[in-house]
Design goal:
The complex is a heterodimer of chains A (109) and B (333). With 109 residues, chain A is mostly helical. Chain A has one domain (17-108): Multidrug-efflux Transporter Regulator, Chain: A, Domain 2. Chain A has 4 helices and 2 strands; from the N terminus they run E-E-H-H-H-H. Chain A has helices at 22-29, 33-42, 60-75, 79-108, and strands spanning 5-9, 12-13. The longest helix of chain A is centred in the last third of the chain and has 30 residues, at 79-108. Chain B has helices at residues 6-10, 18-32, 42-56, 59-66, 107-110, 115-128, 130-137, 155-160, 245-250, 310-322; strands at residues 147-153, 162-173, 179-190, 199-202, 218-224, 230-233, 236-243, 252-256, 263-267, 276-279, 296-302. Helix content of chain B is 28%, strand content 23%. The relative contact order of chain B is 0.09. Chain B has 3 domains: 6-137, DnaJ domain (Helix Hairpins), CATH 1.10.287; 147-224, Urease metallochaperone UreE, N-terminal domain (HSP40/DNAj peptide-binding domain), CATH 2.60.260; 230-331, HSP40/DNAj peptide-binding domain (Sandwich), CATH 2.60.260. Chain B has a 4-stranded mixed sheet with strand order 6-7-11-10. Chain B has a 3-stranded mixed sheet with strand order 1-5-4. The chains are: A mainly alpha (109), B alpha+beta (333). Chains A and B meet through strand 1, strand 2, helix 3 and helix 4 of A and helix 2, strand 3, strand 4 and strand 5 of B.
Chain lengths: 109, 333
């Protein structure tokens, strides 16, 4: 194992992006535009704007697209299945966070 | 190198049918998928299961693997016997023939397999893929894959911003084609105001590209270390604040720790246990002009002082006499 240290690098918070074009979203997620359009049709991600050429995505879409892509690739689910899973995963995340909160409170009182 | 027991990884008997193996794979893949599972070693397990399935789903590879014998134990030191694969033919399938589900499978993925796998099936793959490899040498370009990792930070880092070291294990292919794992340490700026579960994108810090292909990106998922005092939800911070019964009953001005420093907090007269006070903007600061700072929620927890001395007991006795109080009124007793 070789250790290598580099200078401090800076990135940006993906979720803070508010104005991603269709092209930029494709680049970020390494997918074709057709796939993004399918995900929009399925309701996995919601662009602002009506015309495709003026579609505008938020940074949250990046992770949702990546998740859907990985689930389809690795688990052999279809698009609708991946869409359902992405929504359910979000819900689980929220519930887990609430449970943590409740647990902490009940331990202390 | 270590022997891998693919049947054990797949949690099936050596006599399992192809259908049983497929079912076991589907089940384990769902269980350990890094996007689904919350288990710490999910990604490692997912890769192990993928490798095991790569061998066991293919009757040729499985037969070759089986003839190594059943006496090997997982983790045992292993060297492939010479000509061990004589008489077997791994067709072009190999790595890339996994069908639609592996359509995105590329060179970088091959390095995800263990040395054990490489020593047994690596050769066959290289021969079968010779045409492909050839085209690569004559100017095949491909963008590197994105790399995903988690970074644990403290609440204080999100409050003020900080530089954090992130250690990544990156597979690298050397000139001779051997795969080695290198530890790569990056120092990354944690932006002020980042929230749990958000991602920092570091352009060009993912896996290197092939040929002229550009490098992939590195995505760091932010996770907060549990804090002794605070509970973080989004950009809001919650604090359970113990108060004395008389502070809650009579009102008081008390000192309260906040992530940004100690503040004076006024408790209203007659505050109940569990009341929530909001300190606007005292949570995690905004990370950009599009969002606003979180709030600090203080939850009052009335704490009873123990009565041990004569004087303290007398005080409780005095309370009993002064109050007409039945805490079980609602219970009807």
């Amino acid at each position: 194992m070789v250790k290598r240290t580099t200078e401090v690098i800076s990135g940006y918070i993906v979720e803070n992006e508010t104005r991603l074009t269709l092209r930029q979203l494709c680049d970020h997620c390494s997918v074709a535009a057709e796939y993004i359009i399918e995900l929009v049709d399925e309701g996995v991600i919601e662009p602002a704007g009506i015309e495709k050429s003026h579609w505008c995505f938020t940074g949250v879409s990046v992770r949702r697209v990546q998740k859907a892509k990985h689930l389809q690739r690795d688990l052999g689910v279809n698009l609708a299945g991946a869409a359902l899973a992405v929504d359910l995963l979000d819900e689980i995340e929220q519930l887990r966070s609430r449970i943590e909160r409740i647990k902490k409170y009940s331990e202390e009182s | 190198m270590e022997y891998k027991d693919y049947y054990q990884v797949m949690e099936v008997e050596r006599s399992a049918t192809q259908d049983e193996i497929k079912r076991a794979y589907r089940k384990l893949a769902r269980k350990y998928h890094p996007d689904v599972s919350k288990e710490a070693d999910a990604e490692k397990r997912f890769k192990e299961v993928g490798e095991a399935y790569e061998v066991l789903k293919d009757p040729e590879k499985r037969a070759a693997y089986d003839q190594l014998g059943a006496n090997w134990k997982a983790g045992q030191d292993f060297n492939a016997p010479p000509d061990w694969d004589a008489g077997f033919e791994f067709d072009g399938g190999g790595f890339t023939g996994g069908g639609a589900q592996y359509q995105n499978f590329n060179e970088a993925d091959a390095s995800a397999y263990s040395d054990f796998f490489e020593s047994l099936f690596g050769q066959g793959f290289q021969q079968a893929g010779a045409g492909h490899a050839g085209s690569r040498q004559s100017g095949f370009h491909s963008a590197g894959r994105d790399h995903h990792a988690k970074v644990l930070i403290d609440l204080e880092d999100a409050m003020n911003g900080a530089a954090r070291s992130v250690s990544l294990r990156v597979p690298e292919v050397d000139a001779a084609g051997h795969v080695t794992t290198k530890e790569r340490v990056l120092k990354v700026n944690i932006p002020r105001g980042v929230k749990q579960g958000q991602h920092i994108r570091l352009a060009g810090q993912g896996n290197p590209g092939i040929g002229q292909g550009k490098a992939g990106d590195l995505y760091l998922e932010i996770e907060f270390n549990p804090h002794g005092l605070y509970h973080v939800e989004g950009r809001d911070v919650h604090l359970d604040l113990p108060v004395a019964p008389w502070e809650a009953a009579l009102g008081a001005s008390i000192k309260v720790p906040t992530p940004g420093g100690v503040v004076d907090l006024k408790i209203k007269e007659g505050s109940a246990n569990g009341s929530k006070l909001r300190l606007k903007g005292r949570g995690i600061p905004a990370s950009s002009s599009n969002n606003s700072a979180g709030d600090l929620y203080v939850i009052l927890q009335v704490t009873l002082p123990p009565a041990t001395t004569v004087g303290e007991k007398a005080a409780y006795e005095k309370m009993r006499q002064s109050f007409d109080f039945n805490p079980r009124k609602k219970l009807g007793v």
